[in-house]
Amino acid sequence: MFMLKILLLNCLFLSSLNLYAQSKNVEDFWSQKKLITPFRMPLPLPTEKIHYIDLDGDGDPDVLRTKIGENIPIQWIDDDDDMKNGDIEGDMDSDCLMIDRNNDGLYGGEHDIIIDWNDEDGDNLADMQVLVDYSGLDDRGLWKAHYMWFIDNDKDQL
Predict the structure, then answer these.
(1) DSSP-derived 3-state class of residue 9
(2) pLDDT recorded at residue 138
(3) Which residues are CB-neighbours of 21 under 8 A, at least 6 positions away?
(4) pTM of this prediction?
Protein backbone atom coordinates (compact mmCIF):
# COMPACT_ATOMS: atom_id res chain seq x y z
CA MET A 1 0.00 0.00 0.00
CA PHE A 2 2.89 2.36 0.83
CA MET A 3 4.46 1.80 -2.62
CA LEU A 4 1.13 2.53 -4.27
CA LYS A 5 0.94 5.89 -2.47
CA ILE A 6 4.51 6.73 -3.58
CA LEU A 7 3.65 5.78 -7.15
CA LEU A 8 0.51 7.94 -7.10
CA LEU A 9 2.44 10.90 -5.66
CA ASN A 10 5.08 10.55 -8.39
CA CYS A 11 2.38 10.44 -11.06
CA LEU A 12 0.72 13.52 -9.59
CA PHE A 13 4.05 15.38 -9.49
CA LEU A 14 4.94 14.46 -13.09
CA SER A 15 1.46 15.45 -14.29
CA SER A 16 1.70 18.85 -12.65
CA LEU A 17 5.20 19.34 -14.06
CA ASN A 18 3.90 18.49 -17.52
CA LEU A 19 1.02 20.97 -17.16
CA TYR A 20 3.46 23.70 -16.09
CA ALA A 21 5.74 23.00 -19.07
CA GLN A 22 2.79 23.15 -21.47
CA SER A 23 1.56 26.42 -20.02
CA LYS A 24 4.97 28.11 -20.41
CA ASN A 25 4.70 31.03 -22.82
CA VAL A 26 6.45 30.14 -26.08
CA GLU A 27 7.63 33.74 -26.46
CA ASP A 28 9.85 33.32 -23.38
CA PHE A 29 12.45 31.37 -25.37
CA TRP A 30 15.37 33.26 -26.92
CA SER A 31 15.11 31.52 -30.29
CA GLN A 32 11.48 32.47 -30.89
CA LYS A 33 10.48 35.05 -33.48
CA LYS A 34 13.55 34.25 -35.59
CA LEU A 35 13.10 33.61 -39.29
CA ILE A 36 15.80 30.97 -39.17
CA THR A 37 16.67 28.76 -36.22
CA PRO A 38 19.96 30.18 -34.90
CA PHE A 39 23.02 27.94 -35.06
CA ARG A 40 25.72 27.78 -32.44
CA MET A 41 28.75 25.55 -32.39
CA PRO A 42 29.00 23.23 -29.42
CA LEU A 43 31.33 24.75 -26.85
CA PRO A 44 34.33 22.88 -25.47
CA LEU A 45 33.76 21.06 -22.22
CA PRO A 46 35.00 22.94 -19.13
CA THR A 47 37.64 20.21 -18.69
CA GLU A 48 38.96 20.66 -22.25
CA LYS A 49 42.23 22.56 -22.58
CA ILE A 50 42.20 25.61 -24.86
CA HIS A 51 45.44 26.58 -26.60
CA TYR A 52 45.93 30.21 -27.62
CA ILE A 53 48.51 31.05 -30.29
CA ASP A 54 49.84 34.58 -30.87
CA LEU A 55 51.02 34.59 -34.49
CA ASP A 56 51.87 38.29 -34.84
CA GLY A 57 53.56 38.83 -31.44
CA ASP A 58 51.18 41.60 -30.30
CA GLY A 59 50.27 39.87 -27.04
CA ASP A 60 46.76 38.74 -27.93
CA PRO A 61 45.78 35.37 -29.42
CA ASP A 62 45.22 34.97 -33.13
CA VAL A 63 44.32 31.27 -33.09
CA LEU A 64 42.29 29.30 -30.57
CA ARG A 65 42.62 25.51 -30.64
CA THR A 66 40.53 23.08 -28.61
CA LYS A 67 38.30 20.03 -28.97
CA ILE A 68 34.52 19.73 -28.95
CA GLY A 69 32.04 16.90 -28.80
CA GLU A 70 33.62 13.52 -28.93
CA ASN A 71 37.25 14.67 -29.24
CA ILE A 72 36.87 16.64 -32.50
CA PRO A 73 39.71 19.16 -32.98
CA ILE A 74 38.71 22.68 -33.99
CA GLN A 75 40.56 25.95 -34.42
CA TRP A 76 39.28 29.50 -34.63
CA ILE A 77 41.43 31.93 -36.61
CA ASP A 78 40.79 35.56 -35.68
CA ASP A 79 40.99 37.78 -38.77
CA ASP A 80 40.28 41.13 -37.10
CA ASP A 81 42.64 40.82 -34.10
CA ASP A 82 39.99 41.12 -31.37
CA MET A 83 40.38 37.67 -29.77
CA LYS A 84 41.28 37.64 -26.07
CA ASN A 85 42.77 35.08 -23.72
CA GLY A 86 39.84 33.36 -22.05
CA ASP A 87 37.65 33.33 -25.18
CA ILE A 88 36.17 29.90 -25.87
CA GLU A 89 35.05 30.60 -29.44
CA GLY A 90 35.40 33.22 -32.15
CA ASP A 91 33.04 36.19 -32.41
CA MET A 92 31.91 35.23 -35.93
CA ASP A 93 32.34 38.64 -37.54
CA SER A 94 35.77 38.21 -39.13
CA ASP A 95 36.83 34.73 -38.08
CA CYS A 96 37.50 31.37 -39.62
CA LEU A 97 36.42 28.11 -37.97
CA MET A 98 38.22 24.96 -39.06
CA ILE A 99 36.84 21.58 -37.97
CA ASP A 100 39.01 18.46 -38.28
CA ARG A 101 36.02 16.14 -38.54
CA ASN A 102 37.98 13.00 -39.35
CA ASN A 103 40.55 13.72 -36.60
CA ASP A 104 43.56 13.19 -38.87
CA GLY A 105 45.45 16.23 -37.56
CA LEU A 106 44.95 18.23 -40.77
CA TYR A 107 42.55 21.15 -41.09
CA GLY A 108 41.00 21.52 -44.54
CA GLY A 109 41.65 17.90 -45.48
CA GLU A 110 39.20 15.24 -46.53
CA HIS A 111 35.83 15.27 -44.74
CA ASP A 112 36.70 18.49 -42.84
CA ILE A 113 34.63 21.68 -42.64
CA ILE A 114 35.75 25.31 -42.86
CA ILE A 115 33.43 28.24 -42.13
CA ASP A 116 34.73 31.76 -42.73
CA TRP A 117 32.89 34.93 -41.70
CA ASN A 118 33.82 38.25 -43.35
CA ASP A 119 32.98 41.75 -42.09
CA GLU A 120 33.53 43.88 -45.17
CA ASP A 121 32.19 47.23 -43.90
CA GLY A 122 33.71 47.34 -40.38
CA ASP A 123 30.42 47.23 -38.42
CA ASN A 124 31.48 44.05 -36.51
CA LEU A 125 28.74 42.03 -38.22
CA ALA A 126 29.47 39.39 -40.84
CA ASP A 127 28.53 40.49 -44.35
CA MET A 128 29.58 37.25 -46.02
CA GLN A 129 30.06 33.68 -44.95
CA VAL A 130 31.65 30.84 -46.86
CA LEU A 131 31.18 27.21 -45.94
CA VAL A 132 33.45 24.52 -47.36
CA ASP A 133 32.58 20.88 -46.71
CA TYR A 134 35.37 18.68 -48.06
CA SER A 135 34.67 15.24 -49.48
CA GLY A 136 36.96 12.24 -49.24
CA LEU A 137 39.90 11.72 -51.56
CA ASP A 138 38.14 8.75 -53.13
CA ASP A 139 35.02 10.84 -53.84
CA ARG A 140 36.42 12.87 -56.74
CA GLY A 141 33.76 13.46 -59.36
CA LEU A 142 30.95 12.19 -57.13
CA TRP A 143 29.72 15.65 -56.05
CA LYS A 144 30.00 14.96 -52.32
CA ALA A 145 31.84 18.19 -51.46
CA HIS A 146 30.01 21.47 -50.85
CA TYR A 147 31.13 25.07 -51.32
CA MET A 148 28.58 27.72 -50.40
CA TRP A 149 28.64 31.51 -50.16
CA PHE A 150 26.12 33.45 -48.10
CA ILE A 151 25.97 37.21 -48.68
CA ASP A 152 23.92 39.49 -46.43
CA ASN A 153 22.98 42.21 -48.92
CA ASP A 154 20.12 43.62 -46.84
CA LYS A 155 22.07 43.68 -43.53
CA ASP A 156 19.48 41.66 -41.58
CA GLN A 157 22.00 39.03 -40.37
CA LEU A 158 20.07 36.23 -42.12
Answers:
(1) helix
(2) 78
(3) none
(4) 0.72
